[in-house]
Amino acid sequence: MGGWRNAVQEAAASKPLFLTIYTTIIVGIVATSFYVFSAIYSPSAPTSTQSISTSWLSSPPLSQNGGSNFSNNISQPTDKASQPGSNQLKTIWEAPPSNSKMPPLESFKLTKELVGERAKDNVIIVTFGNFAFMDFILTWVKHLTDLDVSNLLVGAMDTKLLEALYWKGVPVFDMGSHMSTIDVGWGSPTFHKMGREKVLLINAILPFGYELLMCDTDMVWLKDPLPYLAQYPDADILTSSDQVVPTVVDDRLADWKQVGAAYNIGIFHWRPTEPAIKLAKEWKDMLLADDKIWDQNGFNELARKQTGPAVDDDSGLFYAFDGTLKLGILPESIFCSGHTYFVQAMYEQLRLEPYALHTTFQYGGTEGKRHRLREAMVFYDPPEYYDAPGNFVPVLFQM
User: Of 29, 70, 161, 398, which is the most buried if we count CB atoms within 10 A?
Assistant: First the structure.
């Protein structure tokens, strides 16, 4: 009986403590509720002065109909002269006047003069595709312009894409491919034809005398790659790879002796040197002679004819192909494949900043690639895609 009285006395003594806890919880709930309802019902902040940089939540709507609603909402980068004494680069996203006429198709041919108009420091960055990949292409372009990189060109494989990009103010040229405007599907005969177009394009641009950073449309730039590539002026080619195990733990070129995976031609940089031009020609001849050879397999077969020795002790370059070509492999942790970026987040483990991500190592086709980029919030989508009105209630918890 005495024990029961002691328990009652202890509970009574602790009552102020419980009252304090309950009061704190109730006050917190009331404050949070007030914050939520005030956020929902308060008038929206004005947005007229906002500029668009790398925030994909505030990106202007994407239109697949070739309209020009995109360009009016983009913040304009400050373009610099392409080379000393040359003309200024034309501003990207600056749409032609709506009452103007589309220039004749002939004026969109790939020429040395066209490349020279866009090149900066003798470098041109190129991707290409058909209308089915227009949203990927706009994503690719927007990432570069957000990084203040504008020495770029897009190759259009069909006139529908060419016209749409022209009216959006994107530098575009006609590849003369007469490609279908639909998604042809990875691995299909038409897909392999697109790969051959890449090889033809490389062979067309290199004789112009410009360095070429060639990119697939299913990759995005997260950091300006040009200063990194410029660190290796002796390289004839710098290529990405499908390596999934890190060969270096910093931002040096990959250790070529440890790279056993394929060289990936979705991101690679060419200089107009004699060995690079020779490899490009042999690659083209190989593919044109046998339509069953995949373009990437053909490149690997030629580049790996010889591997080594190292060019020097420090650069990470090595001799490849015919023994005269100087090749470097971009580090897998920061020039990321789909595996090293999305699955491993290798760059985070090594505390590095990624330059690029390429949506490889996923098996859901084009929709899978689009989903991967959206999941990482680096795909160009209208704001309502991420914040559908009326479907989500913002709640802020404070501890």
Answer: 161
